[in-house]
Each structure stands twice: as C-alpha cells, then as structure tokens.
Specification:
CATH class of the largest domain: Mainly Alpha
Radius of gyration: 23 Å
Strand order of the largest sheet: 1-2-3
CATH topology of the largest domain: hpI Integrase, Chain A
Number of domains: 2
Number of helices: 13
Helix content: 55-70%
CATH superfamily of the largest domain: Intergrase catalytic core
Number of strands: 3
Shape: elongated
Largest sheet: 3 strands, antiparallel
CATH architecture of the largest domain: Orthogonal Bundle
Order of helices and strands: HHHHHHHEEEHHHHHH
Length: about 300
C-alpha cells in the first residue's frame, strides 16, 4: 500500500487538482487503514484487501470513539484510493464499493436573523479605512454566501459589477459565478475608490480586493476576529463566525422561496444533499402551521 500511496498522491496533485489539505487528508486516511491492517496482522497487499477488512476497519474506528462524521470522512479518502487503484488496473474489484457510510446526524447551523445581520452591519464604524473594508467584507459574505477562503482570495478582475456578478474560486479550484447585491457592490466600491486604490500593495496582492493595512492579503483568522468583534459590538451573544453569514444567506434564500438547486449553485455545493440542511426552517414553519391550524392538533 505504501508504494501505491506515492503515485496516489501524485495522481491527486496532477490529475485531480485537489487542494493541498484535501490531498494530504486522503493520504492520511489511507495510512490509517494501512496501520490498522499491519497492527492486526491482516493482508496489506491491495489485491487481497476485501470488504471484510474495510468493515473491520470502520468498526475499529468506532471502538476508538471516532464520530460518524470522522469515520465517513476517512472512508471517503479510502474510497478515492481504491477507485484510483481500479483505474490503474492494480485491483479488479473495489472493496469499498458496497460499504455504506456511517449515518451522520445533521447538525443544524447557527443562523442570524435579518435584523441581527442589519444590527451587525450598523455597528461598524465607517469613518476609518478598516471599518469601511470590514463593512464591505461582511456585505459580500452575506450577499454572496462565500466561504471565508473565497472572500479573502476574491480578485478585482473577477468583480463584474456592471453585470451584478462576482467570479469565485472555490474548493478544488472550481470557479462559479455568484450574483452580488447592490448594497455589497456599493460598499466594495466605496472601499476600493476611497482607500484601496490609495494603498501600496505588497507584491503578489495587486489584484486582491481586500487587503490589510500593510497591503497584503487578509487571513482567515483576521476575518474571524473581525466578525466576532462586530457581533460583540452589536450586542449579539450567540456564536458568530464568517460561516454564520454563509448559513444565513442560504437559509434566508430558502425561506424566501428559492429552489434548492439555485442555492446549491450559489454555494458551490457538489451534492444537493449538503444544501438540504437549510430546509430545516421550512420544516419548523410547516410544523407550526399544523399545530396552529389543524383541527386534530389543537
């Protein structure tokens, strides 16, 4: 297995173009399986590994106390490895093909109400460069539902404000076009016109929309701290992170009647099942309607 891991890593790098983090996570997942097989004196020849070894491996992970989510993620990395071996002709059957992923309990994300969003935006001091930039960033987070990594890597040349879209580079370097609202465009243009254009950019950051005071790109931690401090200033006590704005964006669209397919496209989800988590408020509303108006529920 170790011999094939080297070529698997290269395959992910050169042909699949997955991110560095995803590539190394997949390799670690396969190494965990290899360690399990070795420690338990089982066959480590990839041609001899069957679904029984994979099932035993998942049982072993469960006994270690790993969550269903962690087990599922590790299984996903091993699925990718055996699919690669099948593609290369190293094996004739995929031992993970008939293995079911552990059942995940869907944790509902924390969501801000629209008044809470407005309260946070209104708490930002627009008299400073940092405040104007922060208002623009939070407007974009909520208007476009971006991941924080997508926000900090947003480029000036990918902002098509005349058409009302931004081009976003998401997971796996996949690009998508996302509509951007008028308020978000307004505050980005104020920031760019009055502050951003006057800054001396560090080399390599000339095209980045959002910069720190030294002319370099923002970091995830910086955006997280800005969001947390803004929530505190607005008197919001629930846990708030940049991802909360993404969750709120999706939930408010679904509440307003947007189709799951449209929201899936805007969020950049590969699977619509990932987007379905945002329908929980619809279900709560329906349950409330039944409770209030159905004669047998009174």
């Amino acid at each position: 297995m170790q011999n094939y891991l080297v070529s698997f890593r290269n395959f992910l790098l050169l042909e699949k173009s997955v991110s560095d983090n995803t590539r190394e996570a997949y390799v670690r997942d396969v190494q965990k399986l290899a360690e399990y097989l070795q420690v338990h004196g089982l066959e480590t020849d990839v041609k001899q590994i069957s679904d029984q070894e994979i099932t035993g491996f998942l049982r072993y992970l469960s006994e270690l106390g790993m969550s269903a989510y962690s087990q599922s993620r590790i299984l996903s990395g091993n699925r990718a490895f055996f699919k690669y071996l099948l593609l290369e002709g190293a094996i004739e059957t995929d031992p993970t093909e008939l293995i079911e992923s552990p059942q995940l309990s869907r944790k509902l994300p924390e969501v801000l109400t629209f008044p809470e969003i407005e309260k946070m935006l209104g708490a930002i001091d627009l008299s400073t460069m940092e405040g104007t930039r922060n208002r623009a960033m939070l407007e974009v987070l909520y208007s476009c539902g971006l991941r924080v990594s997508e926000l900090i890597s947003l480029r000036l040349t990918n902002c098509y404000f005349d058409e009302g879209f931004v081009k976003v580079v998401g997971k796996g370097n996949k690009t998508r076009l996302v509509p951007i609202g008028r308020d978000a465009m307004k505050y980005v243009e104020i920031y760019v016109t009055h502050y951003r254009k006057l800054m001396k950019e560090r080399k390599g950051f000339e095209d980045f929309v959002f910069l720190n005071r030294r002319g370099a790109g923002m970091t995830r931690v910086m955006v997280f701290l800005i969001v947390r401090e803004t929530a505190r200033a607005a008197g919001i006590h629930k846990p708030v992170s940049p991802h909360t704005f993404r969750h709120s964006f999706a939930t408010h669209l679904i509440e307003g009647g947007a189709s799951l397919r449209a929201v899936q496209e805007m969020l950049g989800h590969e699977s619509i099942t990932t987007t379905e988590i945002y329908t929980h408020l619809d279900r709560d509303y329906l349950r409330q309607v039944i409770t209030e108006f159905h004669p047998r529920a009174r």
